[in-house]
């Protein structure tokens, strides 16, 4: 395919399949209707009330107070129906509204602004949007010639384009820009959600591989060494030369080795599962009693204090409580041998408190690496709790944690180090669609403001004040009257003879704009001087409709 043909096809509108169009239309609008919210309904009702108040009754913009109530009710019903049609057929509603509003003397400017905004917001294809805007301009030009015949010439054309630009084009472009911005925001949100899901999948795969590797290393190294300890302890227990106290100590050693092997198998199983939250069911807060009893048999002076009304706990929270007590007893046995230890499990109104504290040791032992406390802190964090570790004022040591009753685990997804793929850059005219809408809206505003600024800066001297009008009398010579009438630049109001009474037969009339105007009448006051046979035969005033 040649580049020229490719560019031509890009500008060709996408025509729907006529056989599938009705069903697709019904599906689309049924889905939209299902997403209707009370806020959306209230917004539509408010817009209808504003439109009726401004355009129909009391008619602040239309200025026609002589219309009967029945006619106003009919006009209001028609406006509301046309406003609601825009929800299904925005282009058709805009075209009909353009002819209705600009084809009559007192149309609804608020309604046409709403219809133009709705059409720009709802028409998805830029080809259809452009076609609708051009067709609306053509209808506006036809309606303008019917409803305002007095405004002609260059100024009339400028006013016509100004009205179209401010009442139709500008809201249309703003609506289109808003729709494109909302679509962009939705696309960015969808892309962000997709990236987060992909990042979680990659992070999960990395964690699974690392956990499998750690499980394999633990099985090959620690499992083998614990098995040797258990075998040697069992063989030593059979030695007849040992006393009862030594035999009991060897039995405790063998029991500890077997328990360590069992826990190691559980840890390896957890590491190899997909979800690390599924830990052993036996290692719960209720098993702390068994843990404390085992420490007593090993020679640790430990006491257990329970308080509060027990509350059902999530598995992760219950297991974290068990590990806190286990780590506290292990640290006390290792770093403070012979010191008394107190384990506290208390059910507070809003959280579970687990505390292990020990008195100062009798002999100073070297400090450990601290890896156990680091791992314990991570376990508590994943359970949604807080951990406090530190020395007591009297010289002992304390490990305390506050664990929630709900499963409020912190997110454990770490940011992925992989480079995210660059998003696909938009190509073609769609790349500048949103920018083009707002730029065109700015051009419309600049042209309108600049044009009226230029017109307002021009000196218009071809006006007649009231004193001059009163001093000119019927019967005066035409030359004397024309000499007194000001010349120069004429205000750009189009044909001043429009809306004037018929001219006298055989007379030639001259029109001027009056110096004093009343903007409440929504019309321009024009004076007329008619001459016949070289004399002034009539002077009158009339209002030219705006």
UniProtKB/TrEMBL annotation:
Class of this enzyme: transferase
GO MF annotation list: kinase activity
Transmembrane segments: 45-61, 91-117, 129-147, 153-174, 432-455
Pfam family, one: HATPase_c
Domain Signal transduction histidine kinase subgroup 3 dimerisation and phosphoacceptor intervals: 210-274
Keywords: ATP-binding, Kinase, Membrane, Nucleotide-binding, Phosphoprotein, Transferase, Transmembrane, Transmembrane helix, Two-component regulatory system
Signal peptide start and end residues: none
EC number: 2.7.13.3
Catalysed conversion reaction: ATP + protein L-histidine = ADP + protein N-phospho-L-histidine
Listed CDD domains: HATPase_UhpB-NarQ-NarX-like
InterPro entries: HATPase_C_sf, HATPase_dom, Sensor_HK_TwoCompSys, Sig_transdc_His_kin_sub3_dim/P
Residues of the Histidine kinase/HSP90-like ATPase domain: 320-406
Name under which the protein is recorded: histidine kinase
Origin species: Saccharothrix longispora
């Amino acid at each position: 395919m040649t580049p020229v043909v490719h560019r031509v096809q890009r500008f060709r509108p996408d025509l729907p399949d006529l056989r599938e169009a009705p069903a697709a239309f019904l599906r689309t609008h049924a889905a939209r209707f299902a997403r209707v919210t009370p806020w959306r309904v209230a917004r539509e009702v408010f817009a209808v009330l504003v439109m009726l108040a401004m355009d129909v009754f009391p008619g602040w913009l239309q200025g026609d107070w002589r219309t009967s109530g029945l006619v106003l009710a009919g006009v209001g019903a028609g406006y509301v129906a046309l406003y609601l049609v825009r929800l299904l057929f925005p282009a058709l509603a805009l075209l009909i509204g353009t002819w209705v509003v600009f084809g009559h003397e007192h149309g609804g400017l608020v309604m046409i602004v709403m219809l133009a905004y709705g059409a720009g917001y709802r028409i998805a294809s830029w080809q259809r949007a452009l076609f609708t805007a051009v067709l609306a301009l053509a209808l506006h030009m036809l309606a303008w010639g019917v409803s305002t015949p007095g405004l002609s010439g260059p100024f009339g054309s400028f006013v016509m384009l100004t009205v179209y630009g401010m009442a139709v084009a500008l809201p249309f472009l703003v609506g289109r820009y808003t729709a494109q911005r909302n679509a962009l925001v939705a696309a960015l949100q969808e892309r962000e959600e997709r990236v987060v899901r992909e990042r979680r999948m990659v992070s999960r795969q990395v964690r699974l591989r690392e956990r499998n590797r750690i499980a394999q290393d633990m099985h090959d190294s620690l499992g083998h060494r614990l098995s040797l300890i258990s075998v040697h302890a069992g063989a030593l227990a059979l030695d007849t030369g040992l006393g009862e106290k030594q035999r009991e100590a060897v039995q405790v050693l063998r029991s500890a080795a077997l328990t360590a092997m069992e826990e190691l198998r559980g840890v390896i199983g957890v590491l190899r599962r997909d979800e690390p939250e599924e830990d052993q069911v036996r290692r719960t807060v209720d098993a702390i009693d068994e843990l404390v009893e085992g420490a007593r048999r090993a020679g640790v002076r430990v006491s257990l204090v329970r308080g509060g009304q027990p509350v059902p706990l999530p598995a992760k929270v219950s297991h974290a409580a068990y590990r806190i007590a286990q780590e506290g007893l292990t640290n006390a046995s290792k770093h403070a041998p012979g010191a008394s230890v107190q384990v506290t499990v208390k059910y507070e109104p809003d959280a579970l408190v687990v505390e292990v504290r020990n008195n100062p040791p009798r002999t100073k032992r070297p400090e450990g690496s601290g890896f156990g406390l680091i791992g314990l802190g991570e376990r508590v964090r994943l359970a949604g709790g807080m951990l406090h570790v530190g020395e007591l004022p009297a010289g002992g040591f304390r490990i305390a944690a506050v664990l929630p009753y709900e499963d409020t685990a912190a997110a454990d997804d770490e940011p992925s180090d992989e480079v995210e793929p660059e998003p696909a850059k938009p190509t073609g005219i769609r790349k500048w669609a949103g920018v083009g809408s707002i730029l065109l809206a700015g051009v419309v505003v600049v042209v309108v403001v600049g044009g009226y600024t230029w017109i307002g800066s021009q000196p218009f001297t071809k006006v007649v004040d009231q004193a001059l009008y009163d001093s000119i009398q019927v019967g005066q010579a035409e030359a004397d009257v024309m000499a007194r009438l000001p010349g120069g630049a004429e205000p750009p109001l189009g044909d001043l003879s429009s809306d004037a009474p018929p001219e006298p037969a055989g007379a030639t009339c001259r029109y001027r704009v009056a110096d004093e105007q009343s903007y409440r009448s929504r019309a321009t006051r024009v004076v007329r001087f008619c001459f016949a046979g070289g004399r002034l035969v009539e002077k009158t005033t009339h209002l030219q409709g705006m």
